[in-house]
Amino acid sequence: MKKLFGLxxxxxxxxxxxxxxxxIGIVDFDKVVDSYTKVKTVTDEISDKYAEIQRYSLDKExxxxxxxxxxxxxxxxxSTAKELSKKQEAYLKLKEKKENEIDTAIKNAIKKVAxxxxxxxxVEKTVVFFGGVDITDKVxxxxxxxx
Length: 147
Fold this sequence. Notes:
Protein Binding, DinI Protein, Chain A, 3 strands
């Protein structure tokens, strides 16, 4: 009788522990970034801003070569350096802002998909050797469907 009771308690514990098992989701972050349509738009915007800075530098270099007076060259260098610095700072702020927007959108989509699919924990695919529920495609769909 004691053995039967012990066996029943053991079975109940096993079933209880399985019922409370944590569900782990996995996400291929690189695939999400590559498949998220907004990333291309943001990348193009950042590239355009960078190209604008390069064009500015080339134009100023051409102007500089035309200046003959050393005093004018010095003044030109100083004003151009200040303006270039402002443009580079604006570029870096834009880049950081856009990268943060993308990162936040991806994290929110992962969280949303995890909640919808009753997933307790989500990790990056590269850290999982075996198992887990791959939610990558659902995350991509969620990102690309929300405008």
